From TrEMBL:
This is Acetyltransferase (GNAT) family protein. It comes from the Bacteria. SUPFAM superfamilies: Acyl-CoA N-acyltransferases (Nat) (SSF55729). Pfam families: Acetyltransf_1. GO terms for molecular function: acyltransferase activity, transferring groups other than amino-acyl groups. InterPro entries: Acyl_CoA_acyltransferase, Bact_Acetyltransf, GNAT_dom. It comes from Micromonospora auratinigra.
Length: 149
């Protein structure tokens, strides 16, 4: 397995992000409307296994100190193998290299596996923020990133 950076315009990133958004719409009953594909300012990492992109996630800067985890997704056939945990660690390293001291995220209350992953990786609940404030299904988490010695 290889984790590598890909541009926001990469077609394989677009395929995974679209799949992630469709899965989310199905899980929340379609309450959030149309599929959102990408933001130009997200820095993406992908997981490649046997030449195929099987997972993605990105970091978007909210401020100089704070990054937001975006679009974490693992293809269903590859779940339960530690792929998301490895990708999350790589995304945390990317956020740290970008100068962020805190990484935050939003997920849905209807996604217990995602919540369990984030909690087990040291993320703690925070108040709902930004564009998520009016979404009754949003739950938000944050983690303080290690400081270089």
């Amino acid at each position: 397995m290889l984790i590598e950076a890909r541009p926001v315009t990469d077609p394989e990133v677009a395929v995974l992000v679209t799949a992630q958004q469709r899965e989310l719409r199905a899980a929340d009953g379609g309450l959030d409307g149309q599929v959102t594909v990408t933001h130009d300012d997200i820095r993406y990492l992908v997981v490649v296994d046997a030449g195929r992109v099987i997972a993605c996630g990105g970091i978007q800067a909210l401020s100089a100190d704070t990054g937001e985890l975006k679009r974490m997704y693992v293809r269903p056939a590859h779940r339960g193998r530690g792929v998301a945990r490895q990708l999350l660690a790589a995304l945390e390293e990317l956020a740290f290299r970008q100068g962020h001291t805190t990484l935050c995220l939003e997920t849905g209350s209807y996604l217990p596996a995602a919540i369990g992953l984030y909690r087990s990786c040291g993320y703690r609940p925070i108040p709902v923020y930004g564009e998520y404030v009016d979404n009754p299904y949003s739950v938000c988490f944050a983690k303080r990133l290690p400081v270089a010695a």
